[in-house]
């Protein structure tokens, strides 16, 4: 993974990636500085949530969750935001009729 800090960096990294493989796409993500990252782990049955845990990354957004320190319950989320996150998770699980564990 490379982080492009300028248009020149982006062009250089895309050219290098195309030399490695012309058949496989490149994933481009935009990182928000000073952003807070939230993880949700849940279990559903036929789209209905059975249990859910919302965790907050201690580090700023951009650190892979496998390398990050997470705390639950979230320490810096207000109640309204936490409820909105839970509602979004419920709606997605229902729309996709999720059965089993999943992460968002």
Automatic annotation (TrEMBL):
Keywords: ATP-binding, Ligase, Nucleotide-binding
Any one Gene Ontology cellular component term annotated for this protein: cytosol
One Gene Ontology molecular-function label: dihydroorotase activity
Biological processes, Gene Ontology terms: 'de novo' pyrimidine nucleobase biosynthetic process; citrulline biosynthetic process; glutamine metabolic process; UTP biosynthetic process
Carbamoyl phosphate synthase ATP-binding domain residues: 1-100
Keyword Ion transport among record annotations: no
Protein name, entry field: Carbamoylphosphate synthetase
Organism: Euceroplatus sp. 2 NB-2020
